[in-house]
Amino acid sequence: MTTTETPNGLRVEGFRTRRSHGAGNLSKNATMLGAMILAFDGVIATSAPASLWVTLPVTFFGLGLTVARRHGMSALAYYRAKMAWKLAARAEATNYRKVLLELPYSLDLPGVAASTTLIQAHDPTTGREVGVVHNRRSGYMTVSTLLAPGGSLMAQTASVRSHLRNWGSVLDSMSTDEQIKGASITIQITPGAGEALGDDIAARRDPDAPAVAQALIDELVKTAPRATASVAPWMSVVVDPNATATPPTDLAEQVAETLRVVDSLDLSGTGTDVIRRATATDLRRLVRSAYDPSSFFAREQDFADLSWGECGPMAADEGFEEYAHDGAVSVSWVLREMPKRPISYSTLLPLLSPGKFQRRVTLAYRVLDPHEGEAVLEREISNAHQAAETTAQVKGRARWSQKADYAKAEKAAAQAASGAQVVDWTLMATVTARTAADLPAARQELDRAVKATRALRMRTAYGAQGSIFAAGLPIGYNPLVK
Q1: Among residues 480, 479, 462, which one has the least CA distance to residue 72?
Q2: Helix residue ranges per DSSP H, 228-279
Q3: What does the alpha-carbon distance between residue 364 and residue 469 come to, in Å, rounded to a whole number?
Q4: Are 448 and 392 spatial neighbours (Cβ–Cβ below 8 Å)?
Q5: Distance from C-alpha of 398 to C-alpha of 169, rounded to nearest angstrom
Q6: pTM, to two decimals
Q7: pLDDT tens across 158-211, in order?
Q8: Which single residue of 140, 163, 224, 344 has CA 20 to 30 Å from 435?
Q9: By C-alpha distance, which of 44, 43, 37 is closest to 59?
Q10: Cα separation of 43 and 46, whole Å?
Q11: What per-residue string of b and e applies to 32-59 under the rule 16 or more CB within 10 Å gives b?
């Protein structure tokens, strides 16, 4: 039996989850909070000693929830999210119904997208129309670029290495530009794109063709709609046009500044081809088809006539583990923890393979500037060293996991000192079923795809289904951007 292994040059490494050092398995903030609560309990006990029978069990129970893990997160964070969702559901804040209101804020999109509006701009560099999403609350603007990935599975090793280096250069350029707040890459896979094949074959079919050929064509028409899919990748860049020495004075200048910043990012050589900047119609199609998957293959004119608010759902209900919208139901997952070992450049292939249900996979980035990145790494080295030292003093030696974590922190700092950049990133995936009855099958399909990566661990986005759903759309919402 022979085995194959991906060369080191085609692997990506350096992943590490931020950690803070506290007492035991507690974080620094949890330790400080616990100490404050215990001190408060002691103050109360000075006048009422019997109160310790109540306050101490409650305090230790809360600390126990902080240490315990539930679905890759602390049990305290999980139950706090569930309680917050229940309170929001009781106040009917998790339900959305489209209501006709007076201008200018009629027909807003739901949830985190409510403060966005769509601007149709003209790009003088290319002479084409460009759609710009403006967040009226933060002032940030987002431009999306439609991509056509070339694929690297059959490419030469040198080509793939070049693609990885060039993508690293793109991230480096983001770290030195204060106006770029974050970016995300989304790939949407919509099954059923082969339905148009039947109409095309019917018009070109020769009735005098051999029976075997006609039977083969019939079988192709029968199976193609279930075996093909439409793949729509795009990159969204969040820009703060006002983060300059001379901020723009009006909306038109802000749009021009945003386009200038986005044009400075060169994606050539990263393994993907740039089709064009997404137009306002492109953005309407992507947003509308996410809420209503049946409209994905509608005519271009059907989207050109929509207002921005009409691209959203007529109704939406956000559950703790699912998100219902316009007759469809979606489930979103998020990265549970950073990969513990180097991963291959093709790790995401199972997640990006077509399935029975529409799926969106989003990689969100926030590149830290060099000074912030250095400060973060130095703090992580100190935290990892203190954790290992504390364990060694108690048990005689540090755990191997702590030693490995300390080595990772030192290696990351060495790489940063050599010019590498520190990047906050996360992975999100959303699968959409047409009916509630298909939801278990859609959830199972996504679960199998995640397990097939053999390197990534993901979990359901508990209590944040609507937000993660929106993070996969070209509307400028990035959970890593403050």
Answers
A1: 462
A2: 251-263
A3: 13
A4: no
A5: 37
A6: 0.83
A7: 777 787 788 888 888 888 888 999 999 999 988 865 555 565 677 678 888 888
A8: 224
A9: 37
A10: 5
A11: ebbeebeeebeeeeeeeeeeeeebeeeb
